[in-house]
Amino acid sequence: MSFPVLSTILFAPIVGAAAITFLPTTAGSTIKKVSAASMGISFLLSLMVFFGYNWQTGGMQFVETLTWLPEMGASYSLGVDGLSAPMILLTALIGFAGVFASWRVDERPKEFFILFLLLVAGVAGTFVARDLFLFLLCYEVVVIPIYIMIILWGSSKRVTKEYAAMKLTIYLLLGSAFLLAGILMLYLNAYPAGARTFSMEALAQAGNSGALSPEFQKFAFFFVMLGFGSLLSMWPFHSWSPDGYAGAPTAVSMVHAGVLKKIGGYGLIRIGLLMLPLGFKFWAPLIAAFGVANVAYAAFIALVQKDMKYVVGYSSVSHMGYVLIGIAAADVIGINGAVANMFAHGVMSALFFAMIGHIYHATHTRHIPDLGGLAHQMPRATVGFFLAGMASLGLPGLISFVPEFTIFVGSFKAFPLFAVLAIAGIILTALYVLRVLADVLFGPRRTEWDGVHDLHGADWVPLVVLGAFLVGFGFFPSLLMDVVNSGIEPLTPLLVKIKTAATLWGGL
Amino acid sequence: MNFNALMLEMAVALLALLILVADLLMEPGQSRRKLGYLAIAGLTGVLLVSLGRYGLQGAFFNGLFLLDDYALFFKQTFLIGAILVCLFSLDTVDNLPHSRAEFYVLLLFAVVGMMILSSANDLISLYVGIELMTFSFFILVGYVLCETKSTEAAIKYLVLASAASAVMLYGMSLLFGIAGQLSYTALAKGLTASPALIVGGVMVLSGFAFKIAAPPFHMWAPDVYEGAPIPVTALLAMGSKAAGFAAMVRIFTEVFPGTGYPWPLLLLLLSGAAMLVGNLAAIPQTNLKRMLAYSSVAQAGYLLTGMLSGGFAGVKGVLFYLMIYVFANVGAFAVLTAVSQHRNGETIGDIAGLSRKAPVLAVTMTVSLLSMAGIPPLAGFVGKFFLFSSAIDAGYLWIAVLGFVLSMVSVYYYLNVVKSMYLGAPADDRPFEVAMPVRVTAVFAMAATLAMGVYPGPLSQLAEVAAKTVFK
Known about the structure:
The structure holds 2 protein chains of 2 kinds.
Chain A: H1 5-21, H2 28-52, E1 61-69, E2 74-80, H3 84-101, H4 109-128, H5 132-141, H6 143-153, H7 161-190, H8 200-209, H9 214-231, H10 240-247, H11 250-260, H12 262-275, H13 277-303, H14 308-328, H15 332-363, H16 374-377, H17 379-392, H18 401-414, H19 416-441, H20 460-475, H21 477-488, H22 492-497
Antiparallel strand pairs in A: 1-2
Chain B: H1 7-25, H2 33-51, E1 58-60, E2 65-67, H3 69-94, H4 100-119, H5 123-141, H6 148-179, H7 184-190, H8 195-212, H9 220-227, H10 230-254, H11 263-282, H12 288-308, H13 312-343, H14 354-357, H15 359-373, H16 379-393, H17 397-423, H18 436-454, H19 457-468
Antiparallel strand pairs in B: 1-2
Helix pairs in contact in B: 1-2, 1-4, 2-3, 3-4, 3-10, 3-13, 3-18, 3-19, 4-5, 4-10, 5-6, 5-10, 6-7, 6-8, 6-9, 8-10, 9-10, 9-12, 10-12, 10-13, 11-12, 11-17, 12-13, 12-16, 12-17, 13-15, 13-16, 13-18, 13-19, 15-17, 15-18, 16-17, 16-18
């Protein structure tokens, strides 16, 4: 058996967390080094997986399978395809950057890094799982560390951190209650008792072969949509997201906005589209409509926010709207764009939160009217902030231009009206992003910020690694798009098959 | 007379009598800790012997008492629960003002009652088991004589449990009146659809609902849980409930199907009510024992969904869930014992700041509560998976959806405890001393909850073996 790359990516943070439990509470710098080392291993291996993934042959690669719970039909089986390879890279990348963005956490560092590493491991697990039971296990694991991290290391602004943490937790858990019910129905109905399995391939096979009736698919997909929709902050289940991000410590915001949310989009494709294709097609117009609501509604709210984290929080809700529209288009180009956009948004929002975290640490405020002219005192942080902002409004040459463009191309055929509305949303995005950049970074020098520290030491790491991907994948989009496409292209027969299936209402 | 079938019960009863005699031989002022160790060692011995008894089929006294894998699984559940309760109650018992040895004796008799219940195959042995267990609990609940809360709880329990027993007994007499027989096999043949069957069946069900604390027969639980000494509460929460289920599953799968008694509908209502009442009433509680009482009402609701299908998968789920519930309960109550000894109280304020003073206990509490909520990778998740999937498979989708949603609601009040432990400031600066037995119990319960969540295979296979014997 070859070297278990994916298991190592998954277990390196867990082993790191276990090692930290044996360190004394006072050994802050050792704890951070252990965390960085374990995330570093994951990151390097995930780079190897992403660039080593052979997109010309496609399919599941780096496969590992172990017997786990045969009587339930669940196995410990891992693998990546074109859909999950970018996601696992994103997870490890943000996890790695997150450790360095938390370098200045000196209050109870032991608990912080243990929980953070467990959180990253849980997220990574959902993306490499080829077994639905394993996916569920990892999916729910992540919520509790987040709750504890927000109440302990978060910050209270517009709402208290306790409120924000509980709101986020309850929203996500209620969503997951519906998701669990939907997945159980799927599991029980796909195969007769005795032959039941959690294998994602087998369940997708059942969904595609007609073993599941269209009525059942519509019913079960609704549950799945509620679950993944609330995780992806789909309107109207989005309101936990800005509050949660604003309350959370920097690294949690980075992981949550950057990659945890993406489990929603990933699940909609991997479970919703592949296992319940007719249900997916039926509800797609509703998802697209919600997506437009995400784009427009959240963008308008972002325009008037005074707290930087709320701007980015609402902006992430708004960006998820594009992802939803792209997925709902049920078209190879649209889904390609959606997956690529999830990656792009992940990198960009992680960078955003890292820079905001730094500015907050230095100035002790996130209130936009109090800030201004920081480019004078913090030129390095300005670079990062500016890069993230430009990527957010989709500047060509940065990571998110090609994915967004692809989404519009893909969705225009299916939902012309929604696509036009969503494109109009870009103008709003530009407005709120430029407003924040102008008010925070530019303008006359403010003397009260003269003494603040710019990025130094460990602060460089998030900017450099995230910035590298932001620019690198912007100039060479094929690095990303080829891998993504190798996962989506094989869906063509399925997408053609459901093209004429019943929908909630016709295309708009 | 096949005394071999009754061996485990006899061993535990003898152990209880041995402790009673040994107590008389000891000096009055002497610590009774050794007797506690004796009880633990004896129970462990019985547990080890019981491990080798799978596959045995035995009946005693014309089928009054049945030994099969199903009964054995439950007996082991009770024994494990009792061992762990004895372990973390050693220090509590040491601090009792009086009758310290009798605590172990009564506890063992309660366990004997539970063990008989799991083997009951006849209304008479069912009743004997229930009463033996309940009588022991009457005394245990009011064990601390000069404490008003404890005494109040004991009186409440005495009055309500007696009423419940009377109702159940009347129901049994109706069933006997219809069938003219008492044994389950004869009842299954003899019962015919009639209004008397429904009345009798509902009365028997009420008796069980009282034992498992399902609404509207759950009112005693919060008060009794609050007043009783913590180890007794722990045993009441898991042992009494598990024993109730042990007897209930057998009677509902062997007697009532095919008689025209609409039990699935009644169980559906009970289950929905238990989940709703338990989870919603637990939210405003500030006393952790009361909160755990309501949470145990909710757990009864989850367990009842497993009985709805009346099939193999559901029974397996019930068995699995009860075993892991023992560990979650022991973890939570062991931590509560330590907190209560330190603070002399068990409110959410008393547990504040526990993560700074005793991080291991705080983690144990978190793990135990989250397992009850069904968060993976803890054992509760797999347990709920078994229960709810059996309900969905039998066509009861919405009760499972309700169960999932309310499990997530329960996270709210469990996390409030977690918040208090991690965020709250400690109420005093005194060093927090954790007695070794409590620490051992807590760590063991936590490890078991984690292990059975990540690798539920062995326990689930064991539960499968046990459940099979009910459907022979």
